Every structure is written in C-alpha cells, then in structure tokens.
Amino acid sequence: MLSHTTTRDWLIPYADGMLAADERRRIDGHIAGCAACAAELREVRELNLLLVTLPPAPPVAFAPFWMSLQAVLPQRRVLRIPGFSIYRRVGLALAAATVALLAAAGSALAAPSALPDNPLYPVKQLEESIRLTFTPSNARLMVQLQLASERLREAQAMANDHKPLLAEASLRAFRITIDDAAASLKNPANPQATRAAMQALRADLAAVEQANSGRADDDAEVKQLVLAATDELDRIDQSEGLTTQPMSAVGEHAGTAEATPEATPGPTPQPVSRPTPSPKPSNGDGDKSSVEH
Fold this sequence. Notes:
mainly alpha
C-alpha cells in the first residue's frame, strides 16, 4: 500500500489520467481509506475544470515590440574577433619557423664531421670559410693547418671507401690550403707548434697513401697528388730553413772578426852581426914572468 506522501505527489498525474492502471489501483486503495487525500483530489479536479473554462490569452505581436525595444536600447560597440584562419596561418608560420630552426641547429652540429659524400658537406665548407674569415691574423696559420689536416682526413676516408674522385678533390683542396699558408709559414708566430703541425701533415699524407695502396685497384691520380703534396711540404720546409737562418750567428761572427783583426805581415828583421874579438898577441917575457910569479 502506498504511503500518504507518495499518494499526494501522484494526485495531479492521477487526476490528469497520466498513470498506469496498476498505479491507479494502488492510489484508489489509499484514497478509499484516507479522507485527506480524497479531499485534496477533489480540489485538484476543481482546479482543472477552472483552467479549462478560462478564455485563451490574446496573441502578442512580438515584432513591433522588439523594434520599439531596440530603438531605446544603447548601441553596442562591434568587437571584431579575428577568424580562425588568421590564427591558423600564424600557427603554421611558427611551426615552420621552429622546424627550420631545429633543422639548422641539427645541421650545424652534424656538419663538422661531415665527409665529402655527405649532403651536409657544403654546410661544413661554409662554416670553415666563416671561421677562417673571422680568425685574427696571428692565429690564422694554425687554423689553416687544421683545415689542411681535415682535408687529408677526408681524403683518407674517401680512399678507404673506394671513392677516388672525392679523395682527389680533398687532396687538391689540401694543396690550395697549404699554398695559402705558405707565406705565413716563412715566419710563424709559434715555430714549435707549426713544426709539429707540419710533421702531423706528413703523417696524414702517409696514411692517405697507405689507404690508397691498400686497395687492389689503387688510384694512380691519388698517388700522384700525394707525391705532389709531399714535394710541396718539402719545398716549404726548405724555404723556411733558408729564411729562418739565425742572424745572431752572423753578428757574432762579424763581431769576432772586428775584435781580432788579422796582423799584417811586416818586413822580416835582419840578424844583427856582432864583431868577433881578435886574440891578443903573446910574448915570451910575459909568459915567463907569469910563470915565475
């Protein structure tokens, strides 16, 4: 059996005929024993009859009302909000710039170790050119020797990979770099470091020749370029030895010559002849007297 509260909540749907048959039977059972719910049901039915007898509300002309209302309302400022297409273009531009920046950074980091058969090798050459351009004159020679050593490293790698044309190109670039540094090699700022770098270049040339001759099909042009580069280093060493002759030794030799002038030969002195004393004459008397005495 339904409770009193539940029955009161269902009285309006019950009066409108919106409940199912079993629910109506349950409410009927409660109303039969509850005078309060029966009285409230009668009030609900009377209210429904009253609402049905009321006349319908007159229609309202909304359009004239809205126009009159807009006339008295203040004008609003039009706020133009950019469309999505503008934001999309800006986002695509930022994304493209980010990708380009990351690609440039990756290329800059990977370029120093790139070999002539690498797509990043032109970037490496550009970086080396910029580095050499902005290097002070007193440190330019060592940078040139480092670049020359890098060319030999590339030539050795290309010879090991059976790419003689690229090895030849690296050897030609090495000779160009050495020729550019020849003038500075005559009077280096750090002779000891320069001498060590030149010895290292000779060792690198030997490594290139070994890599080339270690193959069954060694390239004659690579061998010829290695010999020419070795001759170039010999020529530079010889010219450096001639120009770096110590001037102090020459000065010391001149000073010694001035301090100890050679004696000019003079006339040979003639021997002085002294007269030989003649013997005194002896007589018999004198001898006799000396004996007697």
